[in-house]
């Protein structure tokens, strides 16, 4: 991917994200991408929670795809990198990468298409 990294954040794999096989449950990958990478990216762009509360404009996700490349375990340090693939006046197409910091590998990717919505109209 040739687009520059616009946003980066770090976190730790939480105990409640772990399934009975001892690795991060697939549903929590989306939770982590959404709550850490997407929310942080939107705050960085100025269209996050504060913007929604002040302007009554927000984003709705139209589509999301996750590729699980390598597992992450409880306590692993993870880094998210976000790139903007494309945009127009209503849509954002962006791509998150999740890396295991300690073991230095790409663990998962998340590609999203989001629409910007004026809740007044």
Strand tally, please?
5
Instruction: Give the class from helix and strand content and strand pairing.
Output: alpha+beta
Task: Specify the overall morphology.
Answer: globular
Spell the H/E element sequence. Answer: EHHEEEE
**Overall radius of gyration:** 15 Å
Task: Quickly count the helices.
Answer: 2
Major pleated sheet: 5 strands, antiparallel
Any overview of this molecule?
By secondary structure, the chain is of the alpha+beta class. It starts with 6 loop residues before the first strand and ends with a strand. The longest helix has 20 residues, at 26-45. The chain has helices at residues 26-45, 49-55, and strands at 7-12, 57-68, 77-87, 91-100, 105-118. The model has no long low-confidence stretch (mean pLDDT 96). Strand 4 (91-100) and strand 5 (105-118) form a beta hairpin.
